[in-house]
Specification:
By secondary structure, the protein is an all-alpha fold. The protein has four helices and no strands.
Length: 87
């Protein structure tokens, strides 16, 4: 709109993996639906998701075992969606 006006403005947005991991602890139905929709729309690497979780999020969780289970359930749901959807 105004070239050169916003020289110091830097816009940043979370990538798909970061967005997914931000929803993990809350784990309400809306979050689960969001992640399944994202996984259908923008297929992502579930192994990379698991790796990023282990490295970037798990060390900082209060109840890591619960979140381990949540992540596993989400991954299984995504895999089921992928197996049942026509390619």
């Amino acid at each position: 709109m105004f070239p050169g006006t916003f020289k110091h403005l830097l816009l940043m947005a979370p990538d798909l993996y970061d967005l997914t991991l931000t929803k993990l602890e809350r784990n309400i139905e809306r979050d689960r639906n969001d992640i399944r929709c994202l996984a259908r729309t923008i297929p992502f690497d579930l192994n990379l998701l698991r790796e990023l979780y282990e490295i970037e999020l798990r060390p900082y969780l209060g109840n890591a075992l619960r979140e381990d289970s949540t992540l596993q359930l989400w991954i299984e749901a995504i895999e089921e969606d992928r197996a049942s959807s026509p390619t």
